[in-house]
Design goal:
Layout: H1 3-27, E1 36-41, E2 45-50, E3 55-57, H2 63-67, E4 76-78, H3 90-97, E5 103-107, H4 112-123, E6 131-135, E7 140-144, E8 147-153, E9 166-177, H5 186-196, H6 198-201, E10 202-212, E11 227-233, H7 239-245, H8 254-261, E12 266-272, H9 280-293, E13 300-302, E14 308-309
Parallel strand pairs: 3-4, 4-5, 5-6, 10-11, 11-12, 12-13
Antiparallel strand pairs: 1-2, 1-14, 2-3, 7-8, 8-9, 9-10
Helix pairs in contact: 1-5, 8-9
């Protein structure tokens, strides 16, 4: 075989191989299976670790003592607000894992984080590598190929002209074969792809795979609509308790969250950040009652008060 013929054969072989992978991937566009470990009890500590994405939402106390070596997998830390139960675990995490060069993101007008960055550099001068980055509203952060996190302002800390509390949305982008080409033979697809290019035969599919509310009141259903997994706080059980709580910073009640979920499109719900005033039986009974009342058919998961919950999406649920 001549050299030009050999090169042409290699090019065609490469095209066929790529196309076969492309067709195989388009047969099954299921999103990544998520392993979520968490601790979330109002006032004391909150953190959620999404293992496959190397993502940590909030970093309350007990982060390193519970996750231990798994903390080394964390690449991106997104803090929702500067309440101490959401950031107290950063000191030990930074001391142990700064050499992994994680990036810690925070609301841009939260003054606690620049102070923490400066303090840790002096308190643990032998550790370095952590980056501290402020976030503006609607800022988009790529975290790995085909995945990005978008932050959006919530109403937990409502200070005019200042951004002090955030929620986070994780989106996945995939390329999918356009419907008009799905019944064509491999040979036909190769010919079209060679002539027209990838973009002619495929379209980009964007899906919201997870939303993390952080601390926030329920205020705009559209913010959480159309996602696979919603992680939402429920500090109080009822609307009445929420009103009587009279907190400076705003929170949600389980009753409001379940009412919202009944009116939006999500596939699974994780509820946490319950107040320690409730025992687990009270919380369980309230979830069961409200799930039935609002006719919610999706799986509902709960992060129990005072306990870490491992692999939440694959554990006991009110389904």
């Amino acid at each position: 075989m001549s050299e030009p013929s050999r090169r042409q054969h290699e090019v065609i072989h490469s095209l066929i191989k790529k196309l076969l992978h492309f067709i195989r991937d388009n047969k099954n566009l299921e999103e990544m299976k998520l392993t979520i470990n968490a601790y979330s009890t109002a006032l004391f500590a909150t953190w959620y670790f999404i293992e496959e994405l190397g993502l940590l939402f909030d970093a309350g106390d007990g982060l390193t003592s519970n996750l231990m070596g798994k903390c080394g997998k964390i690449k991106h830390v997104f803090i929702s607000n500067a309440d101490r139960d959401h950031l107290a675990g950063l000191l030990q995490y930074n001391q142990l894992f700064a050499h992994r060069k994680p990036i810690i993101y925070y609301p841009k007008d939260s003054g606690s984080f620049p102070f923490l960055a400066e303090f840790t550099s002096k308190f643990d001068p032998h550790t370095f590598g952590t980056q501290w980055k402020p976030l503006d509203n609607e800022q988009v952060i790529p975290i790995k190929p085909n995945y990005e996190v978008t932050c959006f302002e919530n109403q937990h800390i409502d200070v005019e002209g200042q951004l002090k509390s955030l929620s986070y949305k994780v989106e996945e982008t995939k390329n999918k074969l356009k419907s008009e080409f799905r019944n064509l033979s491999s040979a036909a697809l190769i010919a079209i792809k060679k002539e027209k290019g990838d973009n002619f035969i495929q379209e980009q599919i964007r899906k919201t795979i997870l939303i993390y509310s952080g601390d926030t009141p329920v205020y705009d259903y559209s913010k959480y609509d159309n996602c696979k997994v919603l992680i939402h706080e429920a500090t109080f059980l009822t609307k009445e308790e929420l009103v009587s709580g009279n907190n400076k910073n705003k929170h949600s009640s389980l009753e409001e969250v379940m009412e919202m979920v009944a009116n939006i499109n999500i596939e699974q719900l994780i509820i946490g950040h319950f107040s320690s005033r409730y025992n687990q039986q009270q919380i369980d009974e309230s979830i069961f009652r409200l799930k039935k009342y609002y006719n919610i058919k999706i799986p509902v998961h709960c992060v129990p008060v005072g306990q870490m919950k491992k692999d939440i999406l694959h554990s006991r649920t009110w389904s």
